[in-house]
Amino acid sequence: xxxxxxxxxxxxxxxxxxxxxxxxxxxxxxxxxxxxxxxxxxxxxxxxxxxxxxxxxxxxxxxxxxxxxxxxxxxxxxxxxxxxxxxxxxxxxxxxxxxxxxxxxxxxxxxxxxxxxxxxxxxxxxxxxxxxxxxxxxxxxxxxxxxxxxxxxxxxxxxxxxxxxxxxxxxxxxxxxxxxxxxxxxxxxxxxxxxxxxxxxxxxxxxxxxxxxxxxxxxxxxxxxxxxxxxxxxxxxxxxxxxxxxxxxxxxxxxxxxxxxxxxxxxxxxxxxxxxxxxxxxxxxxxxxxxxxxxxxxxxxxxxxxxxxxxxxxxxxxxxxxxxxxxxxxxxxxxxxxxxxxxxxxxxxxxxxxxxxxxxxxxxxxxxxxxxxxxxxxxxxxxxxxxxxxxxxxxxxxxxxxxxxxxxxxxxxxxxxxxxxxxxxxxxxxxxxxxxxxxxxxxxxxxxxxxxxxxxxxxxxxxxxxxxxxxxxxxxxxxxxxxxxxxxxxxxxxxxxxxxxxxxxxxxxxxxxxxxxxxxxxxxxxxxxxxxxxxxxxxxxxxxxxxxxxxxxxxxxxxxxxxxxxxxxxxxxxxxxxxxxxxxxxxxxxxxxxxxxxxxxxxxxxxxxxxxxxxxxxxxxxxxxxxxxxxxxxxxxxxxxxxxxxxxxxxxxxxxxxxxxxxxxxxxxxxxxxxxxxxxxxxxxxxxxxxxxxxxxxxxxxxxxxxxxxxxxxxxxxxxxxxxxxxxxxxxxxxxxxxxxxxxxxxxxxxxxxxxxxxxxxxxxxxxxxxxxxxxxxxxxxxxxxxxxxxxxxxxxxxxxxxxxxxxxxxxxxxxxxxxxxxxx
Length: 825
Fold this sequence. Notes:
The protein has an eight-stranded mixed β-sheet with strand order 4-3-5-2-6-7-1-8, with helices on both faces. A six-stranded parallel β-sheet has the order 9-16-13-10-12-11, with helices on both faces. Strands 19-20-21-23-22 form a five-stranded mixed beta barrel. Helix 3 (103-112) packs parallel to helix 4 (132-147), helix 14 crosses helix 18 (504-514) and helix 15 packs across helix 17. The N and C termini lie far apart (138 Å). By secondary structure, it is of the alpha/beta class.
């Protein structure tokens, strides 16, 4: 057996490191043989004993292909020494020592046996892709290794790897580097016209590469729609080369056709998604054409939706794609972007855990017994917003109860699908054949033209007619994939297919089981706009027949920037929603009507089915709503006046002047913050705005002041003080504790020798002395000085302006008067 692979050079070092360390990191470029040579060469290591090796691959195609390649090298059938497990397919035996599995399979194996006692080594291949399941599986394996299985070995390997991030979490893990044997790849930048469609530009560059280069071509395109467009254009050109699509949903035999060379020597063009970046060896490739885009899932925690976005390729992915041309000899990579653009690309891809829907992950963790994600060692911590969103959804689906997995949650977890789909499949045993068809349609691409409308019933009818060999206007290849998946589900559940016409209301009810937050009510009759239970507003395409339905259960939509778009939905019977609805008392302060109102509503999330007036409002609820009304409208709602504002200022002044006595904070912000404490006991008779105005404010406010201070308030900070004329003049206080102001006519303070004081003589008032016409004459806090110095000038002016009034030469002994007194000659 040939060992002419670069990985052979570091194989002894890898074995030695695994013998010495629980975790080892291997960095090796594509084509080095790490996926197909290394695993079975570790089978006979002494530290492994009779235990087996599990190797994770991020994709089903890679898992199968790697297992087949290793079996070929050992001249065995798959399922002997080398086997594989993927969704709905298990090719292993008692003799299997190396199992190649997709990442979700490993987490399922861990849940069934949290010690994996028959396993001695777990290999994480292509870890640089940082898929959600790989991050989860590694976190679980590290905990298991630390607590239950210190003998378990973990090997993390990849073509490119951020070893610093991993080493920060897994301290002491050594790194082994294989330089590989990569032939040089010449990079040619070809910038297409900005206005040209991607398929047309790609086709022209393929034609150019066929003329300029030898060997087979590998073309990277964003998605399957782009692959089909380019394939159609190439076939129309009558090329002599064979054209093969390659994507994840393609049947396995078709995938094998794409990755194996043509026995007749005819040139091959492989049109692929990013599935071909790593793991897969596509023989005969000498030229790569890279459009520079890929389709990645993005999760929006605000809407609870995941959508595929077309994004620019990262630099590390672009280098890996180009490297596919240099496995057999010198190659060429055509890049459909400029060299300057390349330098501006993001350096490496972002871990999926930062953008993904974490529902499956959180259900796995709950089954593992993890209550807090921080209990595990993550290479990248799951975002808190996405974690909370996932927990809310799982609670709504009944999979979690106070973050603890339920019996229903464990049943959901046993099904190899998203928790939403699992919940739908478990909803009604009598509808299981229908549930399976709906699930299969939702998990695959849409088989009919979107112009046909958004109704899921149309898709179900097409599938069931096609199964009966009736001609339908739908994509047969997609229908084949849907039926293949449905067959797997029927085999799992041991049921037969049902080809009867689907019942609309049953389909809507099933979608509601998977997407309860997407139950939607039409905003206006015959309007395309609907309000979701999660409060978002979405819309059907104009003139869609579903517009006649008041209620929809929506299976597929995009979150949109403003209003989202509905792509697939079914009508749902309003009567069936009553059981889902929760009674909710809604009590509000209607500021326009100036009154408190209460309604008993049946609601699904934020959507109301029905409502009726509340016969009575609980006292605690009434109090809370009325206090909120005061916060919203301000103290003016209580008929707040200058009297109360001065009361606030008096107390706030004493709070400043006498800080050790405990005078309370009665500023407006403080009163708003504590309104429930001081106001709620007095609101039992309040229902309308007029009732607020009738409240006896002085008595209410007095309750805020501690009893030991309330008796001091009028003594220390009186509302009015007496002047020599006998008048009681109001003091105007300020909340900042500055001297209070008294505005008094000059004639009323004749005979007053010193400036009046308050606060036990510690604070002088600020005198605003006025003329008989109440015009300002002097502002002073030193009355004695005023009499001595400024009064004589003021007297001259006042005698001229107010001749009928008495202006004595000696204000010290003069009689104070309130009104006019004729001057004495």
